[in-house]
Structures are given as C-alpha cells and as structure tokens.
Structure to design on (581 residues):
C-alpha cells in the first residue's frame, strides 16, 4: 500500500498555492491531486513522490493533514481495464469510498488511487497481481516520474 | 383614553401605603428565604437571623446581592423554600457556563404571577374580547407560558402559536381575527417584511396591538413596527429569575414600564459600587421577589441597565416606570430573543477534542432575524485525514451548541492558525447586527 497526503484546507483564494509552495520548496513532486469541496472548507488528497517528507513539512507549518493508506493500482492504459479492476474488487466485496485516477500518456499507464477498507490485504494483492495489475508502495511513487 | 385596571386598588395605591405593604412583604420574604441553607448562611453573616431584623425598607441594604452565579451554585434544590410536594412548576434557564439555574413555583406563586401579567394586559387596553396570538417560545423559556396564563386569566382568546412558521402565523391572524400578538421585535419586523410575499395584505388582519420583549430595541424600531402594521406596540420587561414577563410593562401611554412594586422591590444601583442611585440615573436593575414562596430571591442583580422615569403617569398607576433596557453589565448576547453567553459557547467548543484553541463568534442579520456564526479552528493533531470525520465534527459542534444554547448556529471550520491570535484579552465576539 502507498500513502497519499490528505490536507484540510479553507475554501478561499491562496490556500492551494501556499500548500504548493511548501511542496515546491522541498522539491517534492506532485503526481496527482483532487479536492473535495464542502462550502467553507475542502479536503485535498494529494499523491506525491515523497509522502513522509511532504507530511512532515506541512505538519511543521501547522496544517491539519494526515497520511492515509490507499490502494494505488497501476495498469496498462487500455479499454476495459477499469472494468476488469473494479469487477475484481466487487467480487471480493470491496467498497471504494474515495477514488481518483489519471493516465501517464507517455508511459501508456493508468494509475488509480482507491480509498478502500481492506480486511485481507494479502489475498486482494495476489488476485490483483494475477490479473496483471501492479500495486504501488510508497517507494514506487518516486519512480513513477 | 379609557383606562382599565385588573386590580385597581393596588395599581393606584398611594406610595406611603405601598411602602408599608412592601415592608410587610419583605419581612415575609426574608422569613421564607431563611428556610433555605443558602440564605440562612448568607443572612446570618450580615446579622439577619429572622424577619424581625428587618425594621425598615432601608434595611434591605444590609442584605447582600444575589447573583446568577449564586443561583447556579444552588442548582438544583438549594433555593427551594417549600416542600417539593407544593411545587407545581419549574423553569430552568441556561447558566453562563453550562450549569443551569432553576426557579420553582407553588400553585399560589403561579397565580400571583399570572395576576401580574393580567395587570399588564389590561394596562394596554386589551380585554376578554381580544384574540391574543402568542408567538413567543413556550417551554422552559418563560416568555411563552408567562403571557399565556395572564391572557387566559383576563379571558382573552389565546392562540398558543409559539414562534416561527410565518405563513401559518399570518394564516392564524387572518382566520381568527387576532387583535394582539406577543413577539420579539425582530420577529415582528420579519413578519412585516414577508407579509405580502406570502400572499397577505394588512386588510386581511385585525391586528391592533403588539407586545414586544425578550430583546433590546429602540424607540425607532417600535415606531417602525407600529407603522408597518398600523398598530400600537408596548414594551415588556421580565426575566426568568423574577418569574418571566410581567415584572414591568407599558400602559396605554407608552412612557416607560410600570414595575409592579407590590411584587418586586426595584432598586437601581451603580454596578461598580453597588450603591443605590437616585431616580433618573442609569444603573443596574436589582430586584427582590415579594410574593414568591417557592423560590424567594433577595436583591437579584439582573445585569440589565436602565433608569427610573421621574414623576407620575397619566394612567394614575403609582408603580414607578422603568426605562427601556439601555444595555448590559456583562457580555450576554441576545440572539432572536434567546440569551446566550459567550462563555457557554466556549465551554461547548473546548470539550470537543477536534476543536483547536481559537474560535470566533459572529452575529449577523439574515433579513430581520439574527444569525449566529461560530468560526472554529480544527486541531491539527486530531485530524486523521477523512472528510467524513470533518463532516461529523461539524454536525457535532452544531448539535452540542444547540443542546446548550437552544439556538441553531452555523459553524465554519478553519485551518489551524487561520483565526487571529490575540495578545492579552482575546476579542472573540463580533456583533455586526445593526442596532434595532
């Protein structure tokens, strides 16, 4: 399992840029991010190459943030692959509560970050691997770029 | 102008006789208060062990003041001066820090309270022929039930509408030809602004009078409401510690609120020194109950500021007239007629672990109604990264505040460190409402 950084942020101009500046100063590279809006505030979920370092530098500045384990699945960018992945999770009765995904066009690879509650991690990892999916760990994130 | 009295003899009693009556009732009240441990201890310390130690009205100055904190410390039974078997009702109100206060009433206490309210109602020219729509909150808040029982005693047709649901209020007024209403001035303005939008016109209504209370407002607001509805509006004063409404009320001449001095001893003191102030000088209202057996209270500091009008009223009532409330000696806020202390809000916030140290309280106007906005910082160390947990936190803060202060606040969550930090005493309350 890899970890993404979840950050509580106020919904007003300048908040995203101040987070991005801290990451830039630390030479941390952003792989993907998404923001969920709740009116006065929002939650930023961000996948970066150095999760631990990013967490420490934001926490040090007083941000309410936390590292969260997510299932980061890497697959060939090909029609039907998302179906294959989700069908597999469905058959294992795994619910996806939050998700974001993107494609690395040059690599012809798709990345899915899934917030799932895994009881039997080993089992699902094996069956995902069997079907040709790659599951990324923290250390793999820096190699993505 | 026709002047009606509920109890003419006592309402126009001459001052000398009134003072004699006050002394007699004060002695009885002290005797009654001595039945409670709280007053027994407190009065002993200043040399009062029986009613005989009160020889003149002036002797009241020997008695120490009773404060809201005293009432809190006595909660729940410390000030009960009768057997619980004789109690027929109690009203509690929220204290400044979450501990409530309680006032008990015997059957006779309730009877004398509604008699006072009946006097108020007749003093405004309302009779048993009127239809009275009570738009004040019922329940533990004394505003609703207080006027309700008084109006029933007068024999008016009472519609116990309670507050809110403006369309239904207007429908009730139209269907039952309501002639008198009781509401907060804010709510009257709100109804006035919605009247046409909701498909009504002034011609549908038979409204003649309004009783306005539970929040401070100016003479201009009274005039505005009177003009808006083509009615007469009367100022009302009361507080739960002194029963509720019915302590002081305006008569048809609308020149200050007659304070029923056969039921309360009225003093205006300098809030700093505690010394009695002469008529006409603004100070803190201090009241002593004279007719309540279940919970006698001596020299209660109301924290309300006002002054006493000089001279006699054209209605011939000899009970002195209190000005409108000009302010408070503490930081109490009045939100849509409900009393709220910033300390209550702080207490609720600080027992929620996900809330940080900093918070702000904003009061704004949403149309004619008050809006309470609480801004809180979340505590970074308690954040686990889930949006759901933040949604739950927001609901928790709202629910806990509503349970404590009885009003629905809106809650805004902020990043740690986003709200200004204060050196020294923090400014946390921002009342941005235009003055009524």
């Amino acid at each position: 399992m890899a970890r993404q950084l979840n950050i509580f942020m106020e919904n007003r101009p300048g908040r995203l840029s101040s987070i991005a500046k801290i990451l830039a100063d630390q030479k941390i590279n952003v792989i993907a991010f998404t923001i969920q809006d709740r009116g006065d505030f929002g939650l930023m979920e961000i996948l970066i190459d150095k999760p631990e370092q990013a967490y420490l530098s934001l926490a040090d500045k007083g941000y309410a943030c936390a590292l969260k384990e997510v299932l980061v699945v890497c697959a060939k960018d090909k029609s039907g692959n998302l179906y294959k992945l989700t069908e597999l999770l469905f058959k294992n009765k795994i619910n996806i509560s939050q998700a974001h995904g993107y494609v690395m066009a040059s690599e012809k690879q798709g990345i899915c970050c899934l917030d799932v509650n895994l009881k039997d991690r080993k089992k699902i990892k094996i069956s995902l691997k069997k079907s040709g999916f790659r599951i990324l760990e923290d250390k793999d994130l820096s190699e993505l770029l | 102008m026709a002047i009606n009295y509920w109890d003419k003899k006592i309402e126009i009693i001459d001052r000398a006789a009134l003072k004699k009556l006050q002394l007699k009732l004060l002695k009885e009240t002290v005797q009654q208060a001595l039945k409670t441990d709280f007053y027994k201890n407190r009065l002993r310390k200043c040399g009062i062990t029986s009613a005989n130690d009160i020889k003149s009205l002036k002797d009241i100055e020997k008695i120490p003041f009773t404060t809201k904190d005293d009432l809190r410390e006595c909660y729940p039974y410390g000030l009960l001066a009768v057997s619980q078997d004789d109690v027929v009702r109690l009203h509690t109100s929220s204290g400044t820090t979450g501990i409530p206060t309680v006032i008990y009433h015997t059957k006779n206490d309730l009877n004398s309270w509604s008699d006072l309210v009946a006097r108020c109602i007749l003093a405004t020219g309302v009779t048993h022929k009127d239809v009275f729509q009570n738009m004040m909150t019922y329940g533990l808040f004394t505003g609703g039930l207080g006027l309700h029982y008084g109006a029933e005693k007068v024999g008016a047709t009472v519609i116990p509408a309670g507050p809110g649901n403006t369309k239904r209020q207007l429908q009730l007024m139209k269907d039952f030809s309501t002639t008198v209403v009781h509401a907060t001035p804010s709510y009257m303005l709100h109804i006035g602004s919605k009247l046409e939008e909701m498909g009504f016109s002034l011609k549908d209504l038979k409204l003649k009078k309004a009783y306005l209370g539970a929040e401070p407002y100016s003479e201009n607001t009274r005039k505005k409401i009177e003009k808006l509805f083509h009615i007469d509006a009367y100022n009302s004063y009361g507080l739960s510690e002194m029963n509720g409404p019915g302590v002081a009320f305006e008569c048809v001449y609308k020149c200050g609120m007659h304070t029923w001095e056969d039921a309360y001893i009225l003093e205006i003191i300098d809030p700093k020194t505690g010394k009695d102030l002469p008529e006409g000088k603004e100070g803190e209202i201090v009241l002593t109950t004279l007719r309540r057996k279940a919970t006698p209270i001596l020299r209660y500091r109301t924290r309300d500021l006002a002054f006493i009008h000089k001279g006699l009223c054209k209605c011939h009532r000899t009970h002195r007239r209190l000005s409108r409330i000009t302010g408070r000696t503490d930081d109490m806020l009045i939100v849509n007629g409900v009393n709220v202390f910033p300390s209550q809000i702080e207490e609720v916030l600080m027992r929620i672990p996900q809330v940080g140290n900093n918070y702000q309280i904003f009061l704004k106007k949403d149309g004619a109604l008050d809006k309470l906005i609480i801004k809180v910082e979340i505590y970074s160390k308690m954040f686990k990264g889930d949006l759901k947990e933040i949604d739950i936190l927001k609901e928790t803060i709202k629910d806990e505040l509503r349970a404590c202060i009885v009003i629905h606040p809106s809650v805004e969550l902020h990043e740690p460190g986003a709200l200004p930090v204060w050196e020294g005493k923090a400014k946390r309350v921002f009342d941005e409402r235009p003055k009524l």
Observations:
- The mean pLDDT of chain B is 93.
- The CA atoms of residues 82 and 135 of chain B lie 33 Å apart.
- The two ends of chain B are 29 Å apart (CA to CA).
- Residues 15-33 of chain B form the longest helix (19 residues).
